[in-house]
Amino acid sequence: RKEVEQDPGPFNVPEGATVAFNCTYSNSASQSFFWYRQDCRKEPKLLMSVYSSGNEDGRFTAQLNRASQYISLLIRDSKLSDSATYLCVVNIRGGTGANNLFFGTGTRLTVIP
Amino acid sequence: DTAVSQTPKYLVTQMGNDKSIKCEQNLGHDTMYWYKQDSKKFLKIMFSYNNKELIINETVPNRFSPKSPDKAHLNLHINSLELGDSAVYFCASSLQKALASEAFFGQGTRLTVV
After folding, report:
1. pLDDT digits over B17-35, tens only?
2. Closest partner residue to A31 among B31, B40, B99, by Cβ?
3. Of A13, A36, A75, B94, which residue is 20 to 30 A from A99 by alpha carbon distance?
């Protein structure tokens, strides 16, 4: 079973739309959570961390439900530049405290003019 | 200045060869990683390494071996390359102590085995 499961999409939405991505994680010992963004043929980059109380960064809102082991990302007022693959990431610490990041398969978003 | 740099960016080689990919980070991070991204774009952890612990993903063949000459470098050596090894390999680094530490990735090495 994969550590992180995501709907791969693709999601094709018009400019200005609101779109939501969800992911679930299997390991209840997961300790921190993130959304990364990966553009075509580029490396992944951190979009935002996900906090237990939920957090917002401009048009982006992330939420975490530990009981259901569920993470979400909401993008409001989509822009063409939001077109990318969004990766759900969980951190499971190793025995000596080393961080181990596990990535979902990513959800591909295309924003259409 | 590039935070995480890996070389080469592209690598085309024949089956059976041995090759290495180099990675260096100048962020002062203490943990480095290697990830493999296959044709389906799934990013899978291969190794994580700091000065205390090497964690190997058990699904990684032992033809793959990480080598760390110092904290700023984690190279990936691959023996007896196979067609299925073709993928993009990403190096990354982060801080062990910071639970919410951002991982910074290199630009990737696109390996093609022919």
Report:
1. 999 999 999 999 988 999 9
2. B99
3. A75
Beta bridge partners of A22: A72
List CB contacts (< 8 A) between A10 and chain B: none
B107–chain A nearest CA distance, Å = 5
The Cα A69–Cα A100 span in angstroms is 18
3-state secondary structure (DSSP) of residue B85: helix
The rounded mean pLDDT for chain A is 91
- Contacting residues of A for B101, CB less than 8 Å apart: 99
For the stretch B42-98, pLDDT in tens is 888 898 888 767 877 778 999 999 998 888 999 999 999 999 999 999 999 988 766
